[in-house]
């Protein structure tokens, strides 16, 4: 990869760091959570020093993720307000998935899909946090009916969220030139012009 | 128990009254459940509280604490008016037909011979009419107005269901329902067993409570029968053994009446205690008194007791006054006692009126506590916050604590409620410096003996001459002691029927008390235990539970006194001709030549039925007594109110203020004054035990403390509402002697009762807490109880007194 | 530690069959409430055999002590005063693990081998495998397991599996003075219960019956109740207990579904990439920008 001084700044260092705190805690949460969810994933508890450590750490990681996501949420909330263009983009998302993105409406910093992801993740975070507290027996004691409800919500939300993140990661891999935005904070002008033309115009003034 | 634990399973009806067997005797209670499961027996519970026993009962009736004689007298009246008695039995085996002295009468609450100043009776009219031979006159038709049966009928005719209900608070229909259950067992092949305990004994009319039930069992023909009898459920595992071995100074071991100052010499002592036979042909087994007493003296003084010195009679202490527990503490309280040896006893917690007991001990010079535990008594002088507000600066008593072993830390014997003596083996060494009680007593004795030998003294002989034939003088073995108790031959013991036959050679263990002699040729430490360690060895250690009859007699398990007999009076389980009343539960029968069967016959083995030897061989009459002159307050039990009564009168004698409470009970000066009155203390209180604890021991044990950690009192929902007390609140319970604080358990199981036109509430007070131990510290319950006892045994009235209650 | 003399029927968080070649008799403990006097000997025996000692608590206005099951009290007596047909009854029930045939705790447990169901029916917690998550509590329809504050492990009645493994009855059954706790094969216990129910019916308890709730596949601790039609009278014994549908959903259907869904997303992404290829920045745009830069 060639670094070009004319590359466009997409994320500040703080934003990137924030993202990776969320990302790392999510990964740890996902693998420990999956271990509690299904025996097939149980060996992953070894990564934490065994099942007991996984059980101890999981909720604290959850708190960390929730707080750091909250920071992300406030950073990017305003950038993720849905617009009519986003809706049009979304209605033609199939073309995008098929690889025919040249006719897609001009997008700002985030396209409709990314905004949907943002709001979906925010909702998942909320549900996981609330239901997670219900399950945290070391410190809380809720009525068992509520705990059972919490367990179902937690598991279901977590599954959805893992799927969303898989899509999130895949999208970053699939759309070449994206990942570097979260590594160094910059993207090429070509990348910006192709995928987020409105944002490109906005930052370059062209 | 006249019967035994396992025998409860043979009953058709189990009556639990004056006790709470499920609570206090859960292991024995198994046989009640067996009776229910296998015999379809019914369980009826009569109690002020709906108890754990009531929880598994078929019928429960409430009763006001302290009104049992009214209830049971009512049952007698019911049985007589409805003709629900076992006629043949009553006629043949009781003194129903005996004619009573013309001078005997009962009027306005007093029997004839009452002396109000002395608070006691002259019993000269309480006797049979006798013929020229000295035998009692009888009327076999039971029609003579002076026969015991008619007098009894007349006496209890006043106990109508209406009056019973009015006095006891038991609803009339509930009372009648219990009567119906009981009356069913008048059939010759039906039996009722009665399981009672301290709920009857711990009243100022305790002995008479039990006697009333004995009369009922006689009227129903249930004595001597399998599944019948009068069954006292004893508290400690070995309290039966303790009483057998003379816990009280009123008696010598084996219930031999102790000598008094009035008995000038051995002959006089023996003669006064040897009953004259009152009916022809009767065994009157008590006439063997001299053999038992002589053998006892030989066991104690060995060669030093001879016919020349009246068998050392002069060395025996002579009773000059009462020495029951209340009398002891009264004397101590008066400052008339210097020292007190307190062995296996926690009187500060166990005796009524804790303040008086504490004050009494503060007047001692020294107190020796021999106990495995650091008892409350041993720290009576020490402040324990609100639970024991003592001031050590004002107490000069020197306290010695001698740590003793627990039962599991030494071998020995237990005698259970069913009179079965069972050997037990040491399981572990005692901790620290603890020693066995025998070793401690031996040490004290040897030291005293040494001091008497060295320094002399006023009367050294009783100590110096005591026989001490133990291999290790400082540590006699339990085996040696049981052998001594059981009895051995000192000279040759000959067969009285055939003087050429030697029954026992010198040094041999005797086969039983029948071999005891009054010529000094035998020694026996307790005649009723005679034969428990025979030439065959330690019979109490037998563990063969084979039970060929299926009645649970297990004659080869341990050894039951007397003579390994499991059911007392078992001759009465047969009709006059010797056939069992109930062939399916035959205890013994007459084979044509001898008595035998599933028990050791309580009868001379060759006494043919036509010899008319009656079954109650320990009475001079040979029959059981419906009319019994022995007790202090009258030949027929009469209802008297507890000394603290919620009523201002005895409804049976509303116009005699002197007959409110037991007229023959002893009340000490100062104690009468601290009896509470109903206007200040309107609620009936009763104390009791809980299954989770054993007396004041198990508050020292973690598991028991976990199971029942904190002191509480129980009250009914109605009283709680009146007093604004919620479940779990701390309450203060006051009597005229002090107060305790405890958690309130508000329950449906205690109901207010309608008594004599008043609503009477009961406050239930468990007693297991104190200031020593691992359970939550609590008040000594006996802070509240009155210092008065039964007129015969002086057992304190722990079960019925007055309190007030308020939110703490 | 698995007990070698007892075969395992089910093991928590394990998808393959456990060793199970031996023929084992199904056992059961029968608690005959109608002959129980509430003496708590069972509680004492449980403490002694299992070497557990709970705290010395307080009295809260009832006989129940300890007030509830804890990690150190695996069985407690529960006392209920009820008035039936104007007659007071003191219903006393020994509470503790029911050893369900279909145990909700085992179903919910995420830790392999932390909960074992032996072939004889005993459901046992193996604390060395327990991670302390408390899912067993969430799964249990009877509110039995408790997590220790000291070691964060779950505890409950083991039906004295160590005693049963060597042919002994559980400690509570051994000490019960009235025989209210019986132990034997489940068949024997049902026969015994029939007799007791007959006796109770003859004494006027028309609704006497056996509590062996089928909602959890039957239990290996059963009750004889005087009022089998209303088990809730006995301090809240559940009327028709079963594993909560939420727990079944969570630890049943949801497990494969979520796995399949996640696998589908992963594979879908992979095949999308393989079939559609990467979304690269177009050559034209790059050229265009290069051209701009050159100007």
TrEMBL record, chain A:
<dbReference type="GO" id="GO:0009055">
    <property type="term" value="F:electron transfer activity"/>
</dbReference>
<keyword id="KW-0249">Electron transport</keyword>
<dbReference type="InterPro" id="IPR051817">
    <property type="entry name" value="FDH_cytochrome_b556_subunit"/>
</dbReference>
<dbReference type="InterPro" id="IPR006471">
    <property type="entry name" value="Formate_DH_gsu"/>
</dbReference>
<feature type="transmembrane region" description="Helical">
    <location>
        <begin position="151"/>
        <end position="175"/>
    </location>
</feature>
<keyword id="KW-0479">Metal-binding</keyword>
<dbReference type="GO" id="GO:0005886">
    <property type="term" value="C:plasma membrane"/>
</dbReference>
<feature type="transmembrane region" description="Helical">
    <location>
        <begin position="53"/>
        <end position="74"/>
    </location>
</feature>
<dbReference type="InterPro" id="IPR016174">
    <property type="entry name" value="Di-haem_cyt_TM"/>
</dbReference>
<keyword id="KW-0408">Iron</keyword>
<keyword id="KW-0812">Transmembrane</keyword>
<protein>
    <submittedName>
        <fullName>Formate dehydrogenase subunit gamma</fullName>
    </submittedName>
</protein>
<feature type="transmembrane region" description="Helical">
    <location>
        <begin position="118"/>
        <end position="139"/>
    </location>
</feature>
<dbReference type="GO" id="GO:0036397">
    <property type="term" value="F:formate dehydrogenase (quinone) activity"/>
</dbReference>
<dbReference type="GO" id="GO:0046872">
    <property type="term" value="F:metal ion binding"/>
</dbReference>
<dbReference type="GO" id="GO:0008863">
    <property type="term" value="F:formate dehydrogenase (NAD+) activity"/>
</dbReference>
<keyword id="KW-0349">Heme</keyword>
<feature type="domain" description="Cytochrome b561 bacterial/Ni-hydrogenase">
    <location>
        <begin position="10"/>
        <end position="185"/>
    </location>
</feature>
<dbReference type="Pfam" id="PF01292">
    <property type="entry name" value="Ni_hydr_CYTB"/>
</dbReference>
<keyword id="KW-1133">Transmembrane helix</keyword>
<keyword id="KW-0813">Transport</keyword>
<keyword id="KW-1003">Cell membrane</keyword>
TrEMBL record, chain C:
<dbReference type="GO" id="GO:0005886">
    <property type="term" value="C:plasma membrane"/>
</dbReference>
<feature type="binding site">
    <location>
        <position position="130"/>
    </location>
    <ligand>
        <name>[4Fe-4S] cluster 4</name>
    </ligand>
</feature>
<dbReference type="InterPro" id="IPR006470">
    <property type="entry name" value="Formate_DH_bsu_Proteobacteria"/>
</dbReference>
<feature type="domain" description="4Fe-4S ferredoxin-type">
    <location>
        <begin position="27"/>
        <end position="55"/>
    </location>
</feature>
<feature type="binding site">
    <location>
        <position position="42"/>
    </location>
    <ligand>
        <name>[4Fe-4S] cluster 1</name>
    </ligand>
</feature>
<dbReference type="InterPro" id="IPR017900">
    <property type="entry name" value="4Fe4S_Fe_S_CS"/>
</dbReference>
<keyword id="KW-0408">Iron</keyword>
<keyword id="KW-0677">Repeat</keyword>
<dbReference type="InterPro" id="IPR038384">
    <property type="entry name" value="Formate_DH_C_sf"/>
</dbReference>
<feature type="domain" description="4Fe-4S ferredoxin-type">
    <location>
        <begin position="121"/>
        <end position="150"/>
    </location>
</feature>
<feature type="binding site">
    <location>
        <position position="140"/>
    </location>
    <ligand>
        <name>[4Fe-4S] cluster 3</name>
    </ligand>
</feature>
<feature type="binding site">
    <location>
        <position position="39"/>
    </location>
    <ligand>
        <name>[4Fe-4S] cluster 1</name>
    </ligand>
</feature>
<feature type="binding site">
    <location>
        <position position="109"/>
    </location>
    <ligand>
        <name>[4Fe-4S] cluster 4</name>
    </ligand>
</feature>
<feature type="domain" description="4Fe-4S ferredoxin-type">
    <location>
        <begin position="88"/>
        <end position="120"/>
    </location>
</feature>
<dbReference type="InterPro" id="IPR017896">
    <property type="entry name" value="4Fe4S_Fe-S-bd"/>
</dbReference>
<feature type="binding site">
    <location>
        <position position="172"/>
    </location>
    <ligand>
        <name>[4Fe-4S] cluster 2</name>
    </ligand>
</feature>
<dbReference type="GO" id="GO:0015944">
    <property type="term" value="P:formate oxidation"/>
</dbReference>
<feature type="binding site">
    <location>
        <position position="160"/>
    </location>
    <ligand>
        <name>[4Fe-4S] cluster 2</name>
    </ligand>
</feature>
<protein>
    <submittedName>
        <fullName>Formate dehydrogenase (Quinone-dependent) iron-sulfur subunit</fullName>
    </submittedName>
</protein>
<dbReference type="InterPro" id="IPR051555">
    <property type="entry name" value="FDH_Electron_Transfer_Unit"/>
</dbReference>
<feature type="binding site">
    <location>
        <position position="100"/>
    </location>
    <ligand>
        <name>[4Fe-4S] cluster 3</name>
    </ligand>
</feature>
<feature type="binding site">
    <location>
        <position position="136"/>
    </location>
    <ligand>
        <name>[4Fe-4S] cluster 4</name>
    </ligand>
</feature>
